Amino acid sequence: MQIGFSAPDIPGKGTLAITVLEDGKLGEAGADLDRKTGGSLTRALKASSRFKGKKSEFLDILAPQGVDLDRIVLAGIGNPSETSELDWEALGGNLLYHLNQAGVGEATLLFEAFDESQVAQDRAAALAGYGASLRSYRFDRYRTREKQEKKPTLETLTLALKDHKPADKLYKDLERTVPGIFMARDVISEPANVIYPESFVQEARKLEKLGVKIEVLGEAEMRERGMHALLGVGEGSQRDSQLLVMTWPGADKKGEPEFPVAFVGKGVCFDTGGISIKPAANMEDMKWDMGGAGVVLGLMHVLASRKAKVNAIGVCGLVENMPDGRAQRPGDIVTSMSGQTIEIINTDAEGRLVLADALWYVQERFKPKTVIDLATLTGAILVALGKSQAGLFSNNDELVESLENAGKNTSEAVWHMPMGEEFDQLLNTDSADMKNTGNRWGGSITAAQFLKRFIQEGVSWAHLDIAGVTWSEKDKPTVPKGATAHGVRLLDRYVADTFEK
Description:
By secondary structure, the chain is an alpha/beta fold. The chain has two domains: 2-164, 3-Layer(aba) Sandwich (Leucine Aminopeptidase, subunit E, domain 1); 178-499, 3-Layer(aba) Sandwich (Aminopeptidase). The chain is 34% helix and 20% strand. It has an eight-stranded mixed beta sheet with strand order 7-8-10-9-13-17-14-15, sandwiched between helices. It has a six-stranded mixed beta sheet with strand order 1-6-5-2-4-3, sandwiched between helices. It has a three-stranded mixed beta sheet with strand order 11-12-16.
């Protein structure tokens, strides 16, 4: 689908959407169009008992008289003084869905000028185009028998407004993030016979053309470094485990660059639970247990695509958790790269083992001041927060505030969760330095406490448990049903606000 920008002219054919205020109030262009069509807009507004011009409400007028248009769509924007940037994104995404449902192939969205709007018209149009682009994502490569009427029809959406050139420039800046978001959605959506540690690395190598440096540690190299926590998880798989390291030196500093921020992703490309095997029901969902790694991959693509002025590291611990004769067992004790020993109580609490070594590796090698990890880590976070917000755990209040603000500004919400000594003590065991699970209560918190034991002194750290937000069971304005890439926009905004101001 193509997004374009033009002067605010009424097209000679096709579909025209026009913004309408709350209570069905028309702007100057809407009033002019109403006159040209013999009052068809006014009649439609009076006849509709449900359309009130609220945000992302739509009303279709078919074959209006007086013009050659096939359809006019009244697009509600609510009260402009209360319409945020995210509302304009949602308008674009919802309009795209509405037009596809109607079978429209080409459409123009005409923006009225409203003085009371809190978002400038050119930026509002750019954001609407961006929302439409994000909503246009489809993972359909394996649908070989899909009926034509089920496929999207919209090929071109033109956003018409007075300041169309500035809007086009703003949109192009936003658009640079879309391929990275789609890349994350793609790898998270792929089945485990397509995306596994080695093939994930091959996907990451596509970033080299953008200037991202790619390094890979195989099992022998990780064993030399003592990364037995990560390696233990993959013992039962025929696929070799990998540690993917991506570096983006965007700050242009001379000499040996410093990397102030690192992002670490859990990349369990399929999780059976290992010897502590999961129930068969819904196990197919465990193809996206590498959601954290997918987000880190997409984020690095975004940072490189927009030439972010930051030196950033992305590390992904890539494994498969499978049961066979070599698989890790409950009761085993492994030694992590940090030297701390871990008693394995449950082999299905594997993501934290992968992250333990990945976190230690990135701190030892790159000395970042801030480390943020992402993982589909616990089912307990769904019990706590449902499927609308990621759990945020941290040792630094300033970092928490920055991530919360970034979440609010990108619709990728996070919720600050508690931590404390009473939770940490639940990890103690007589057999080793710690065990890999606590008890039944506070499971997402004890998992975070486990990770905190692998954060070095003086490092600001945040853990995002994205188990509830990595996959959506329903369509949202800018996120179709399926893989969400929740975290890519959040962390890109965090980088822009923290390191590029």
